[in-house]
Amino acid sequence: AQKVTQAQTEISVVEKEDVTLDCVYETRDTTYYLFWYKQPPSGELVFLIRRNSFDEQNEISGRYSWNFQKSTSSFNFTITASQVVDSAVYFCALTHSGTYKYIFGTGTRLKVLA
Amino acid sequence: DAGVIQSPRHEVTEMGQEVTLRCKPISGHNSLFWYRQTMMRGLELLIYFNNNVPIDDSGMPEDRFSAKMPNASFSTLKIQPSEPRDSAVYFCASTGVRDRQPQHFGDGTRLSIL
Fold first, then answer.
1. Cα atoms found within 13 Å of the Cα of residue A78, Cβ hemisphere only
2. For a tag site, which of A70, B3, B44, B89 has the least CB within 10 Å?
3. Cβ separation of B108 and A107 shorter than 8 Å?
4. Which of B55, B87, A54, B39 is nearest to B47 (CA)?
5. Which one-letter DSSP state was computed for residue A48?
6. Helix (H, G, I), strand (E, B) or coil at A98
7. Mean pLDDT confidence for A55-74
């Protein structure tokens, strides 16, 4: 069965702190895709990154970085020098090659305090 | 480029009324998804279409819910009759087929059934 676990329900940090959001997934498929989405207080869901199972390279985009480790079935998301605008709910999602259905985690609410 | 467009943004109606939610996917995308988001259940996939054909409607809660996609640029989700427990945020998302593109979400419709 496929599953995505975001064990951190809510995290609070002070502005400029680094924060890592954890995502652990389960799948039996060898070809799969992982995603992160951001849902700010305004409510929309914003795509952040996609990673496929064959590409274990870490990625950095500005203050955001992602660490994909197949050995631990994890796809963690780090925000460096957090800002108040990073306050949102962040969702990790999984799909595999045989379907377009996403399995979403329950989300991690990040609060960045000024 | 225009993103996924949903209307209305907010809908408040009384129990028993018919509700119609509308979605215009991103041009060129051939898969469309309807989701429902509630605090209790998180993000739930209701139905998805590929090339205007419903592929999986196993998430549709009951016969009161129906969805159509008459052409590649328009879809509706209808609830008739509506009930207070249908109150939620409803998202539409679309994606293309090439290289497993991510789903792009609309801003959602916040539905309140009184």
1. 12
2. A70
3. no
4. B55
5. E
6. coil
7. 90
Residue B95 near residue A45, CB atoms below 8 Å: no
CA A92, B99, B50: angle at the middle one, nearest 5? Answer: 85
Amino acid found at B1: D
Residue B100 has pLDDT above 80, yes or no: no
- Min Cα–Cα distance to chain B from A44, Å: 5
Written as six digits, the tokens of B43 are: 């993000």
Q: Which of A5, A53, A100 to mutate to test the interface with B (most CBs of B within 10 A)?
A: A100
Residue in A43, A47, A107 nearest the CB of B102: A47
Q: How far is B60 from chain A (nearest CA, A)?
A: 14
pLDDT tens readout for residues B5-52 = 999 999 999 999 999 999 999 999 999 999 999 999 999 999 999 999
